[in-house]
Amino acid sequence: xxxxxxxxxxxxxxxxxxxxxxxxxxxxxxxxxxxxxxxxxxxxxxxxxxxxxxxxxxxxxxxxxxxxxxxxxxxxxxxxxxxxxxxxxxxxxxxxxxxxxxxxxxxxxxxxxxxxxxxxxxxxxxxxxxxxxxxxxxxxxxxxxxxxxxxxxxxxxxxxxxxxxxxxxxxxxxxxxxxxxxxxxxxxxxxxxxxxxxxxxxxxxxxxx
Length: 209
Description:
Elements: H1 10-20, E1 25-29, E2 34-35, E3 38-39, E4 42-57, E5 63-67, E6 71-73, H2 75-79, E7 85-99, H3 100-109, H4 113-134, H5 139-150, H6 155-158, H7 163-170, H8 175-187, E8 191-194, E9 198-202
Antiparallel strand pairs: 1-7, 2-7, 3-4, 4-5, 4-6, 4-7, 8-9
Helix pairs in contact: 1-4
């Protein structure tokens, strides 16, 4: 069964960005840079405007999601500072940083807690979606789910990361198990990928294989 991701509340995110942006500091965000949740001893929120940024699980570096659209990170970390995740810039990006204390004050003054709650609800739903992709599923089902997710990306982004890297970064599957399934799918003409393992096209994917 194909699992669909939750719907991004983009209008909500844009309202929060518009409210917090004027008070935030632009950051030089180069590729592969990891972002800190603290700056000069103060908790931070990150306003992501453009580019590509990934969320990694701090405990083992597992890639949870790569974000390509405007977003805000750090609301949950401000309210519950576990710092269980890290942010990594994947391409040169437009990012701003704001002290979390000041951001919370602005959200309260402008009565934007409904928007903040909607953002947190989306994050919670995405974690549930992410778990459904990989937990208690057979190897083929995990690979199939990630192929279906990957084909939704713009072609430019698909041509920057191989299928193998995309799946290995997001799961604990071995290289050989992924390659075996991909080889069988290509041989059966279910998928097409070019030299280097970059996904071009999905003809169809069987539920079981």
